[in-house]
Amino acid sequence: MNPHSGMTVYRIDGTQVNRIIEQPKKRWTTNDWILLAMASLSIIFLAVFAYAPLYGLVLAFQAGDGYLNILTAINNAPFVGLANFRDFLTDPDFRTIMENTLGLNILQLLINFPAPIIFAILMSELLHDRFKKTVQTVTFFPHFISWVIFGGIFLTLLDYDTGIVNTLLVDIGIIKNPVDILGGEQYFWWLIVITSIIKGLGWGSVIYVAAISGIPNDLYEAAKMDGANRFQKIVHITIPSIAPTIVLFFILSIAGLLNNGIEHLWVFQNANNITRSEVLDTFIYKYGIPQWRYSYATAIGMMKSIIAMFLLIGSNTALKKITGKGIY
Fold first, then answer.
1. Which one of 86, 121, 123, 163 has the fewest CB atoms closer than 10 angstroms to its CB?
2. CB 21 within 8 A of CB 7
């Protein structure tokens, strides 16, 4: 019996004769239907929230602003070509918005991207399991708190008049007078960077902790026999082993250079820091929803997606030539 072909083989006078055995059809069980239903939910989710909205991209080329019904705007609004894109590129606030978007994201890329990697490496070096689990629990917890609540905590702590941070800094003599951290535009970017690290450090390190745990222990034992210290093991074993994971997330981070996340910035944005806090995401929301400028907002969002695609392709190509690793 040939297990791969499902055939019975006979030999007659040196020749080979095959007889095909028909395999009985498998009947679907309850578990099969359950798995199909679970897989179908993800397909339905993508169809409704990822592919169906693509139909609305035609608004970017129409004069659909001011319509009460978006479907009516899509079907009836007149075609205006690239007018919406031109309006945004010639907007007086265009330069400021792009500077804030790119500046804040590049700063986060330089600081927030390596932070989970360093934290995961430090966690892997901890020998006390109970202490390690405690640190993981404490650092994971902020991820599950919404930005409205988490940001509200910082708004209370950093308040100019009643915030405990200003009171503590004045009492210990670091500053003489309270600092308007929430209203000072010069502090806004650092406020976003620090709060995002606190909230996402633990959760962001999960994938790197998993990658480190998959490294064969034999490599560390061999390095120890060769006289390598802990730092040398990290440099020559840990980092090279998780390099594909680092490259993957670095490429995705570069592709998302125009995405800030409106919920984070919206909590801390106010009239005093608007010149440093207005980014593409908040700008799209303000014009797209409250002012009913659907076509204008769609054009900006479409431009973001096109730029992100080129950033993804360019960063993947560059890193593949440099490191030999990439997404595809």
1. 86
2. yes
SS3 (DSSP) at 177:
coil
The answer to whether position 328 is within a domain reads no
Residue 229 placed within a domain: yes
Q: How many Cα atoms sit within 13 Å of 50 on the Cβ side?
A: 6
Half-sphere exposure (Cβ direction) of 300: Cα atoms closer than 13 Å: 24
Q: Which residues, in sequence order, are CB contacts of 27 under 8 Å at separation 6+?
A: none
pLDDT for the residue numbered 2: 47
Q: Are 327 and 316 in contact (CB under 8 A)?
A: yes
Please indicate, yes or no, if residue 105 is contained in any of the structural domains.
Answer: yes
Q: 195 and 182 in contact (C-beta within 8 Å)?
A: no
DSSP string, 103-154: HHHHHHHHHTTHHHHHHHHHHHH---HHHHHHHHHHHHGGGGS-HHHHHHHH
Which residues on neighbouring strands pair with residue 10, listed in sequence order? 17
* pLDDT reported for residue 260: 84
Domain that holds residue 141: 92-291
What CATH code is carried by the domain that includes residue 259?
Answer: 1.10.3720.10
**Quick one: tokens of 130?**
């109970």
**Reduced to 3 DSSP states, what percent helix, strand and coil does the chain have, rounded to the nearest 5?**
70, 5, 25
User: Directed axis angle between helix 280-288 and helix 294-323, to 10°?
Assistant: 160
Q: Compute the Cα dihedral for 27, 30, 31, 36 and give only its sign.
A: positive
In a domain, 77, yes or no: no
Positions of the chain with pLDDT lower than 50, given as ranges: 1-5, 8, 10, 12, 20
**pLDDT score of 104:** 94
pLDDT of residue 19: 52
Q: How far apart are CA 252 and CA 324, in angstroms?
A: 16
pLDDT in tens, 163-220: 899 889 888 888 888 888 998 889 999 999 999 999 999 999 999 999 999 999 999 9
Structural domains of the chain, count? 1
